[in-house]
Amino acid sequence: MKRSFATALTLALLAAGACTPVSAQTAAAQCNAFSGLKSDAEQKALAVRTAMEHKAERKQICALVQRFAAAEESVVKFLERNQSWCGIPQQAITAAKTNHERTLKFRTMACAEAPAARPRPPSLSEAIGTPAVDTGENTRTGRGTLDSLTGNPLAR
Q: Which of 100, 104, 53, 108 is closest to 78 using CA atoms?
C-alpha cells in the first residue's frame, strides 16, 4: 500500500517534469495548472499515509482515500487532455492510470466492512472439559498435596 502511494507521487513528479510547453503562452498556462493538481494529490496522499501510520479508524481512512482517489482522477484526466500541449509521454499516462486503478482497489478494500473476527480456538481446559477453578465439589479429600491435618482447605 505504501508502494502504491510512493509510486503515485513519483509518477506525479515525473509528469510535472515532463510538462514542456509546445507553444509559449497557451501551453505554459495549461501546463502550469498541473502543479496545483499535483500538489493537491500529494497532500491528500500524505494525509492517507499519516492516518494509516497513526492507526486511524476505518471510516476516516475511507473518507481520506476517497478524497485522494478523486484528486488522482483529476490528475489522470489532466494528463490525458493535455498530453499533446504539454508533451507528456504516453508511458507517464499509462503509469498514472495503473496507479489510479490500484488506488481504486485500495479504496474498495478500505471502505468495505471489516471482516468478522475469527472465533477463538478452545483452550486446553475447555477442550478436555475440566473446570477452570478448583472448588470443594470438584476436589477429592484424602492424601494429597493440599491436604493438611484438618482436611482439604479447598473443600471448606
A: 100
